[in-house]
Amino acid sequence: MSATTAAADAGAKAPQARPAAPQQPPSKKHVIRTLGRSLREYKKASILSPLFVIVEAVIEILIPSVIAVLIDRGITGESMPDIWKYGLILIACAAVSLIAGFLSGRFAAIASSGFAKNLRHDEFEQVQRFSFANIDRFSTGSIITRLTTDVTNVQNAYQMIIRVGMRAPVMLIVAWIFAFRISPQISMVFLACIPVLAVGLFGLIIIVHPIFERVFHTYDELNNVVDENLQGIRVVKSFNREDFEDRKFGRISQKIYALFCKAEKLLSINSPLFNVCMYASLITIAWVGARQIVASGNNASVGLTTGDLTALVTYAMQIMMAMMMLSMIFVMVIISRASAERICGVLTEESTIRETADPVTDVADGSIDFDHVTFRYSDHSERPVLDDIDLHIRSGQTIGIVGGTGSAKSSLVQLIPRLYDVSSGTLKVGGVDVRDYELEALRDEVAMVLQKNVLFAGTIAENLRWGNPYATDEEIRHACELAQADGFIQEFPDKYDTYIEQGGTNVSGGQRQRLCIARALLKKPKILILDDSTSAVDTKTDKLIREAFHHEIPNTTKIIIAQRVASVEESDKIVVMHEGRILDQGTNAELLERCEEYRSIYESQTQQHAQQDLDKESQDLHEEESEASGFTTDYDEDTRTSDVIARQKEREREREADVAQDIEAIKGGER
Ligand SMILES: Nc1ncnc2c1ncn2[C@@H]1O[C@H](COP(=O)(O)OP(=O)(O)OP(=O)(O)O)[C@@H](O)[C@H]1O
Ligand SMILES: [Mg+2]
């Protein structure tokens, strides 16, 4: 349960990440070793499948030799007993080859689908271990592609490798040895084909592999668009942006199509190349073989016979088939290599948050000490998000945090349950550096309700039990009473068994906030952090929640981030943030006296300014909506609005031109 509430709530906060930073591609050996660890219980099937394939292939190669003897001794030699004998051997060979083929197919299917299952599981498990900083490096879409399409590609390639990958070389080598035994001269024809095919194949690999890398990168973009669209489907509809979204999707889809076409067109060279080699070999064998038969008078003791030529033609077909299979495996490997590297990227991504060897498992109290803490989201960013934060909170205190948008209030509190690590300075909870705690122990004691709350599909009670799986019905109800949620829950026909839709869409914003507060309270934490978590709750209920906290959980340290000064007014200490720094800290009275910024926030929210403010807010909101939706009803604003629309259209045109250019470049490359 520990990390879940904080992490789950906070998970929603993590912004759409930037694509993973470009890295050196991992070496093939490293990729194979990393992915190979996911084979586990399917190693046996992975060995059995190629073993049966070898049996199947060797027997298939024996068959032409048996047929050759059958023709020479039985049919041409007119010996009925030989026809019977070799006929029965042929049937036995066919039966064994059939059974071996069936078993190899079965084990290959078990091994490859089991391998894919383990890969998916390992990736998912790894993603759960990611810190916020790790999650920021990958986008949601990219993680989805890596868990689905990429795994399927690797699964298909693996199945091909353990089955066909073993069969093809065995067939190739053994068939060539048999052909050599019949006619060393004719068997050289096959050797002549190998360099031609090798050059063709490797050329293809070099050209096509980067295209497939781009295809998968574009898949990430596609998944991101779908993810964003579905998550924000209500906003899309309310702003009539369906066409825009449709075009955005269409552009990326078109790019994938263009890339795939280019790659497949190149790969299609593979097949004619093989056909040319195969028919050239057959013609050569028939030409040389026929001349030798005529010269020998079809006499085995003198030279080549008809039976031998039949066997040689069959071996030629088998060798070419084997080469064809090898080329298909190459293609499969080309496609899956990019996927395997991307899966490897997830599996080997090291969590930026690591526990010490001997972590502290007990949080003494809810005191918090920031000592000259500096924090940046990325090592590459120039300016720190939090700069030289010095803040000391005693256990049980109530702390209010106010400040403008983007002043790093959320960033500050996210450091407490170690969702991110400080860049410099120290942060102590209960007198111990947060980095010295066992993560689970620390997060068990720090409950966080973040700005963007998330509820999961399931009943209200199930959602609340994320806070404490062992909570009794009575405890759940009590937490809901504190969070002022019990009232509206009782009005639902199914009460605590009411089903919450995915993402909590069937409850209102304020109801969702209260449920999330109740969920956090059920953890009975030593530190409770509410990040703007009552913004959608009316002022009266907000006050009731604060009063309940004051009376019912006096020993819990409470940190309340709020836009409304009224929500933090009675706190023991109010911290005023500005551009990542603490501007001032003190009680409401102290700050009113000495902090200009606080006074202006306070005054702007008091009665005499309230109406004025409300008017301005609604005007601002109106403007924002007009900008976003691209239409307005306010004719006074005509000129400004048309500017906004023009800018938006210009951006759309630029994006469309970019993709069109990309597609043209792809097509141009094909030509
Ligand atoms: N995951 C992230 N990666 C990179 N930068 C981030 C991330 N989250 C926030 N930031 C940046 O850090 C700065 C502070 O953001 P933060 O969310 O802490 O502000 P805030 O005070 O909570 O704002 P608000 O009142 O709007 O909630 C902003 O400039 C923001 O762009
Ligand atoms: Mg915030």
From TrEMBL:
It is found in: Cell inner membrane. Its main location: membrane. Residues 1-29, 604-671 are annotated as: Disordered. The keyword Oxidoreductase does not apply. Keywords: ATP-binding, Cell inner membrane, Cell membrane, Membrane, Nucleotide-binding, Transmembrane, Transmembrane helix, Transport. GO terms for cellular component: plasma membrane. PROSITE patterns: ABC_TM1F (PS50929), ABC_TRANSPORTER_1 (PS00211), ABC_TRANSPORTER_2 (PS50893). InterPro entries: AAA+_ATPase, ABC1_TM_dom, ABC1_TM_sf, ABC_transporter-like_ATP-bd, ABC_transporter-like_CS, P-loop_NTPase, Type_1_exporter. The chain crosses the membrane at residues 47-71, 83-103, 164-182, 188-208, 273-295, 315-335. Signal peptide: none annotated. GO terms for molecular function: ABC-type oligopeptide transporter activity; ATP binding; ATP hydrolysis activity. It is a multi-pass membrane protein. Residues 1-21 have a biased composition (Low complexity). Residues 47-333 form the ABC transmembrane type-1 domain. SMART domains: AAA. Residues 612-621, 638-671 have a biased composition (Basic and acidic residues). This is ABC transporter. It comes from Bifidobacterium criceti. The lineage of its organism: Bacteria, Bacillati, Actinomycetota, Actinomycetes, Bifidobacteriales.
